[in-house]
Amino acid sequence: MPKPPLPPEAIELLKKPNPAVMAVVRADATPITAPTWYLWEDGRIVLNFEAGRKRLEHIRGNPRVSISVLDEASWYTHITIHGTIALQDDPDLVDIDRISTHYTGDKYPVRDQPRITGHLSVDAYVGWGSMKTS
Question: Number of C-alpha atoms within 13 angstroms, CB side, residue 90?
Fold first, then answer.
């Protein structure tokens, strides 16, 4: 599996508001997935979660996660990032607003729930379609 840095075509794909699915591992070793929004920023993936989500409990137990980003034009082209996520509070909703604006053009509408930001560092990646890696 290739290691960073990512090729320019992968970075271009990651810069777009494409559909994505994140995978985490529960304490009993069962993998779970969930659709998610993300941002590509400074060589890592920025994610954001409602503070009460069960997914955060799983991440705190095992911060190794994966995210698959599918090219909106053709999901046969996609890249999966494997890495470790670091969490921090988003008390002013700055990060969720940036992510929401990236996808919808507007700030995140739910303003009364605490949020947590995750920064996913790239340990390795694999691509398919025009992102295909050997």
Answer: 25
Give 10-residue mean pLDDT values along the chain (134 residues): 93 97 96 97 97 96 98 94 98 98 98 97 93 74
Q: How far apart, in Å, do the first and last CA atoms of the chain sit?
A: 8
Domain that holds residue 101: 8-131
Task: Provide the phi-psi class of 42: left if phi over 0, else alpha when psi is between -120 and 50, else beta.
Answer: left
Sheet holding 44-50, edge to edge: 31-35, 20-25, 64-70, 78-89, 115-128, 44-50, 39-41
Query: What pTM did the predictor assign?
Result: 0.94
Determine, yes or no, domain membership for 97. Answer: yes
DSSP 8-state class, residue 130: G
> What's the length of the chain?
134
